[in-house]
Structure to design on (130 residues):
């Protein structure tokens, strides 16, 4: 549709009204049409039930997620200063990155490469004790 580029097309992207300028007169007409719309007496109870059903479904889903316990993808990280021998344990790569004033991508890269971060910090994943 965009390939055709007809002269009468007021929208830049076919199927999208994004960026379309609407006059105040047009807005007033649309507003009056929307305000004059009335739902039938049969439709109102159905709409009410539909909204309550959606609310209950969302609430039940939230409760189920909470009762399942926290879901965490964080990986504990050990950071060792090779000059002093001090080792700090962080609950996540993000936490270690904040403390070392870098980003989590750098932390991951140094874990994978085995190189020293800033020449003094050895960063490694904490292995679970079995």
């Amino acid at each position: 549709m965009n390939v055709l580029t007809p002269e009468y097309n007021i929208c830049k992207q076919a199927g999208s009204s994004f960026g379309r300028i609407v006059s105040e007169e047009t807005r007033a007409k649309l507003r009056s049409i929307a305000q004059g719309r009335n739902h039938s007496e049969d439709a109102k109870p159905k709409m009410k039930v539909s909204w309550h059903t959606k609310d209950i479904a969302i609430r039940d889903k939230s409760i189920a997620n909470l009762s399942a316990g926290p879901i965490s993808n964080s990986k504990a990280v050990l950071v060792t200063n090779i000059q002093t021998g001090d080792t700090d344990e962080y609950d996540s790569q993000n936490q270690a990155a904040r403390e070392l004033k870098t980003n989590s991508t750098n932390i991951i890269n140094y874990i994978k490469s085995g190189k020293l971060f800033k020449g003094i910090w050895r960063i490694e994943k904490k292995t679970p004790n079995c």
